[in-house]
Amino acid sequence: MGEVKKHDTPMMDELKSGPWPSFVDDIYNYAEKHKKQACFDILGQMELSYKNKETHWKHGGIVGVFGYGGGVIGRYSDQQDKFPAIWAFHTVRVNQPAAKWYHSSALRKLCDLWDHRGSGIMNLHGSTGDIILLGTVTEQLEYIFYDLTHQLKMDLGGSGSNLRTPECCMGMSRCEWSCIDTQDITYELTMHFQDELHRPAFPYKFKIKVSGCPNDCVAAIARADFSIIGTWRDDIKIDQEAVRAYVAGELKPNAGAHSDRDWGPFDIKKEVIDLCPTKCMFWDEGQKKLYINNKECNRCMHCINVMPEALRPGDDRGAVILMGAKAPILEGAQLSTVIVPFMRLEPPYDNLKNLLYKVWDYWMENGKNRERLGETIQRVGLNRFIVDVLGLKPLPQHVKEPRSNPYIFWKEEEVEGGWTRDVAEFRKRHPA
Amino acid sequence: MSEKPERPDPVYSQPYDPTLAEKLYNPQKPMENRITDIGPPHYWQFLPPVIQRNYGKWKSHEIIQPGVIKYTAESGEVVYVVRCGTPRLETTDYVREICEIADKYCDGYVRFTTRNNVEFHVTDEEKLRALIEDLKSRKMPGGSYKFPIGGTGASVTNIVHTQGWIHCHTPATDASGVVKAIMDELFEYFGSHKLPAQVRIALACCLNMCGAVHCSDIAVVGIHRKPPLVEDERLEKVCEIPLVIASCPLGAIKPATVEIGGEKRKTVRVNVDRCMFCGNCYTMCPAMPIADGQGDGLALVVGGKVSNRITPPKFSKVVIPYIPNEPPRWPTTVKWIKKILETYSQHANKYERVGDWIERIGWERFFELTEIPFTWHLIDDYRLAYDTYRTSVHFKFTSHVEVMTDYEY
To answer: H helices within B44-165, ranges in order?
Structure first.
């Protein structure tokens, strides 16, 4: 290894100060310690971007490993003379273990690989959930892939028009509210759909995210084409003793989430009963007893969040399946919309897999190039998608409200006598 | 169904062999020794034993101080979690330090959250105290904390963000630097529980929004403001013209033919009056660069959320259409975010998310309280714009309203 060259980066250096962990300090320390020119060059190029207020990465670049159509994103500098060590700086997406639990032995070995074959810079994690390894050259890609599969038993994640790496919240590993086994579902779907994940055959990207309860900690409803959100159908379980402890101020509301401000003593009426969106709760002050009209509950989680020791989701558990979320490009942002109000989810989740196959069959046949599922649903109409495509029953749960216009696309078979009429017959009744 | 491996795979305790791949991979026979489609490692092997024992059998949790959560299982077993912010963009040495801490206190187990925090788990209080002291003591040479503790409850937790100028080819702003500047300024809110509810901040460096920031309490979005350039001499060689035309959501791109050096070249023309600067054409065509140091900058969107708690999930709305890029500290952006956060903190009710607070007081009041200027850019004129028009006389007379007495024709 020859001499390394540090660039003059006053603006980058400014980001070493302040209390929040500094990525600049981290990268410079690493660069000095390991004598890595790529790390000096990346901060040099970033300084140039800070000066010009423009990126210095070229557009795209198709690279990958044999047999896969995704998982590696090609990246080339447009300042290759100034920053030769990052002339190519490809990204490798590595499929994270469900809910992002690790053992140091695995993480450390991954670090060893990345020191040897890449820049040493990474993200834990990328927006979709993958481990992101930033910065390597084309020649290293196959070796990285062989190292991952042989020495780390890891595989690449998704990129391009394929199934993106599924992601979930921490689920049952630590959360008492998780109504479904988010990690097992994520693992099972990821393993079952390896072909869809590695070999792009879709009109555009397709994301699956799994949240254990309506708090939706993995933002499934906002960013997954296929959102799985755990819920329950029966009654919220109440421990009246614990409710009384909250009311008496013995337990901290919302598990202590508001501890640094004096909000006054806990007021169950003001903080729980009155904030319930369906007004289905009643606190009997005389009896010191909480009543919930569970039939009217829409399972928003507020009361459970506020009194976690006292209230718990019911035992009849499953998931709501929603579809179609996406960011604004192109037709505007969309949230996922309810498709299956309640699906029982038991291993090996064949119902879930079959629903995905049904959706993909239609979308691959009918989706336009770079059209997300949510946009396809809008184009064909939610009613047609639910009834004609998926063969499901239309339900009031599918909409916030029924349509306000009567411009209904009646089907011919719904109208007595069909659409074939004789104008001569018409004129016999109604001379022109 | 797959077997659940109880302990981390023995392969991880074998040292990394830097020469193995060269021995296994033969460019002439690319299928030789190739392992494919194995998917991620099974999650079960990475769960600490206490988590495995109580999986799906947790009873409750309590945030005993900002950043520290105590989970109690039905079995009576307890686990303490210490949550720390990370820069997300980090080196293997930083990750090794995480491993060292995990080895010292947590038998090697560690977890990362959706919002780029790292979590350490211990089962006894003595270890917890030692872990917290250790984490607090670790600093970068420049003085920043390596592992600030917080991100629980009514706090500003870590910012979900994209790549920006460090690695992306379409950004209108940086990501990691802006995040650092914002979190430095909001640091006290990361490690405390003094807000009315949790505030989720996110950043996307262009409208592709890799982080889906469009449902955040406060989000920063990189935007362009100049139409794309068209490189006539290069375009037909590097772009599929019909795809480029189809990529424009407003139909502003049409095919064209030009003469360059006596040679006819196929290219496109952009109707700039129709361009909304989304950058989708550049995504499809490298010969239509849209980024521009003067034109690009940030927009602030607020009031979104993903949780179903009390009110349904909702989109964030644009409140500041443009702030110039001001590296390295983005002072104007940081100033406005702090102003919004502190105005919210001062006026919102307990449990009220930013969007719920604004809906209660009305957007007109929000603009008055925050002193953010309301300009024509904030009135929607894209798809479904009508849904945002005020079609009632329910509004408040804020300082914005002037009495109309005369009107000149």
So the answer is: 49-54, 92-106, 125-137
Q: Who among B103, B141, B146 is closest to A21 (CB)?
A: B146
Cβ–Cβ < 8 Å for A294, A238: no
Distances in whole angstroms, Cα of residue B379 to Cα of each of A320, A409, B69, B340: 34, 32, 43, 20
Contacts of A187 in chain B (CB under 8 A): 2, 39-40, 42-43
Taking the C-alpha atoms of residue B205 and residue B83, their distance in angstroms, rounded to an integer, is 26
Distance to chain B for A407, nearest Cα, Å: 18
A191: closest CA of chain B, how far (Å): 6
Give the per-residue pLDDT at A393.
98
The token duo for A86 is: 């990052």
What does the pLDDT look like over A124-165, one tens digit per residue? 999 999 999 999 999 999 999 999 999 999 999 999 999 999
Nearest CB partner across the interface for B111, out of A100, A142, A219: A100
As a whole number of angstroms, the distance between CA B369 and CA A100 comes to 41
**CB atoms inside a 10 Å sphere around CB B331:** 12
The pLDDT, as a whole number, for residue A2 is 64
pTM of the model: 0.97
**Given its phi and psi angles, is residue A88 left (phi above 0), alpha (psi -120 to 50 degrees) or beta?**
beta
Q: How many Å separate Cα B352 from the centre of its chain?
A: 22
**How many other C-beta atoms lie within 10 A of the C-beta of residue A350?**
10
Count the neighbouring beta carbons within 10 Å of the beta carbon of residue B300: 21
Measure B407 CA to nearest chain A CA, in Å. Answer: 36
Please, which residues have CB within 8 angstroms of residue B376's CB and are 6 or more apart in sequence? Answer: none
Closest C-alpha to B395, from B366, B364, B367, B372: B364
* Residues in chain B within 8 Å Cβ distance of A369: 243, 246
Q: Give the strands of the sheet with B201-204, arranged side by side.
A: B201-204, B218-223, B297-302, B317-324
pLDDT at A46 over 70: yes
Two structure tokens written together for A186: 């994520």
Q: Which residue has the tokens 């490692």?
A: B41
Strand residues in A285-385 grouped as ranges (E): 289-292, 311-312, 317-323, 337-343
Q: DSSP letters along B27-51, please?
A: TTSTTTT------SPPGGGGS-HHH
Looking at residue B270, its pLDDT comes to: 98
Question: What is the DSSP pairing of strand B68-73 with strand A167-168?
Answer: unpaired
Give residues with Cβ within 8 angstroms of A146, minimum separation 6: B20, B21, B24, B25, B33, B34, B35
Average pLDDT over residues A395-401: 98
CA dist A292 and A274 (Å) reads 13
Contact indicator for A177, A255 with CB cutoff of 8 Å: no
Residues of chain B with pLDDT under 70: 1-2
Using CB atoms within 10 Å of the CB of residue A183, give its burial: 0 to 12 exposed, 13 to 18 middle, 19+ buried: buried
Beta bridge partners of A343: A319
Backbone angles phi, psi at A238, to 5 degrees: -115, 130
CB proximity list for A39: less than 8 A, separation 6 or greater: A27, A28, A30, A31, A119, A120, A121, B91
* 3-class DSSP state of A360: helix
Q: Are A60 and B3 in contact (CB under 8 A)?
A: no
Which residues in chain B are contacts of A16 at CB distance < 8 A? 140-144
User: Quick one: which of B153, B199, B185 has its CA closest to B357?
Assistant: B199
- Give chain A's radius of gyration (CA, Å): 28
CB B152 within 8 A of CB B63: yes
Domains (ranges, CATH) in chain A? 10-150 (3.30.70.2500), 167-233+316-414 (3.30.413.10), 237-312 (3.30.70.20)
CB B73 within 8 A of CB B94: no
What is chain B's percent helix, strand, coil content, to nearest 5? 30, 20, 50
- The answer to whether the CB of A310 falls within 8 A of the CB of A348 is no
